[in-house]
């Protein structure tokens, strides 16, 4: 099947061995064709070793801080302070046996403790404590409630959970708490709430008290933790049903730390922790700081104040997700669009010039345009970012290139499943034309593609000029893969094959330089009645960049005959769009009035048009035919500009006034739950 090749000339990976029928050849990182790396240092065998290594090397370094005082300046705790408190917490958990010893699944013997807290310094301390003592921490997203809480509590039989106030209150109103016996409070909880929990048989402990008790009887660290022992659980978001308990081993975190050592992280670096710590990317970044002795600055917890956090911390390393980059791109371009005349022309020319320099000269900076324009964008991120990654899911080329030229650095992509340790692929900071790709396999993984014949993605596919360009399901193998889903052999066997390959569920293309482009998720692909195969993520990444679009969900109409877009527009944009329409119509009416009746008619017409404009609120405006016509026209324009195929053009548009998050259509990791989204809009899709 003819396709275009990547512009990148950087060699990421090379094929090894021979291909099997229905599969591509196996690819490995070009520098690690003979072995896969499982640890950043030979002497580091588990996460206890990693913390001990960091403590000995960086004990006096500031490690983690939060905003405090009237001026909300960052105040830090040193690595030594965190380490010593972690020893106290771990000792208490062990001495008082407040963990649950799980021995009911296969041959595992797991000591469980739960953590249900907002991001805070103590979250990091407890994580360190569990790492040092071989206790398996079960993190809960801080906004979980009801059935999801019950499911995790009952599957793991947790007896003890560390909580902050809001999360303890969530437990209080949860009907079934399973085997829960102890809540360790970090912070305040009202007397009334404490009494209600005690009436349900729950013992309330204080974090400050267990620090004191743990110090009195400090326990030696265990010396029998194996690299393949279970280190932690990570409950997936459950986009179509019950969340799955991903069992991560010690090497599941060590191998990706080894994989990105070349990024040159230093003890003087600063990172902002703003994503929920149960999110694999956020927790992994903290562990990078443990290894490198870098600073972790906690955000204030309010996403609307993220830019304030960035300005206060001035991070040198910033790891984010496409959702945030897309939102910032939208806001910045909305501001640019308001500039007219010389200023507007200057910005358009500056962006075009820097994009051209990026593509043709591998040049990221421009002394004039950076001084006049782009340093202002750089300052939004604190002004000091030297390394930046977009992680978790693929990001559009247009958005990524925009931030490359804005920040003046080669923003990279990192990609991988939670089940595979989070980081399996990444682009190189030496590759300036990698946008649109997720790079090549890291030194801890090998990759191959397997045919998906039902959708026409084959390892035998070729480029437009006939060169091999295999497509198929991305499968990986390496030391960092997870141990399986807890108490779910069926799901584990679905994702693992007998040769140890993890089937990601992602559709990919491998280019001649060994880089990979992710087309989408197999589960998200849908087929129209005429046989056309649609991968919605690629189309959404195209349409999300249309001016005025805040969110977009690509699906089919109820009868699955054509592509439909559900669009959440920007509120101010829609209201301004209709106002512009009313103004133009008013001028048009005035121009057609008979001059002899101009005075009287104009007054009546103006009043009618102004009344119509005044009665339209945002919700009504979203239903206005002119708004739908605008987006349909702009979507067609964008599709043509980006080379979408005819089958990928949107035929109908549904305008939704409420954000998808308000409708409950996102997972905790900010991924759209497509199954529930389609179900939510099905009545409109059937009647469109």
Automatic annotation (TrEMBL):
Q: Name one GO cellular component term.
A: endoplasmic reticulum
Keyword set includes ATP-binding:
yes
What keywords is this UniProt entry annotated with?
A: ATP-binding, Nucleotide-binding
Indicate the segments forming the AMP-dependent synthetase/ligase domain, all copies: 110-486
As one GO molecular function, the record gives: long-chain fatty acid-CoA ligase activity
Q: Name one Pfam family in it.
A: AMP-binding
The name this protein carries in UniProt is AMP-binding enzyme family protein
Q: Which organism is it from?
A: Tetrahymena thermophila (strain SB210)
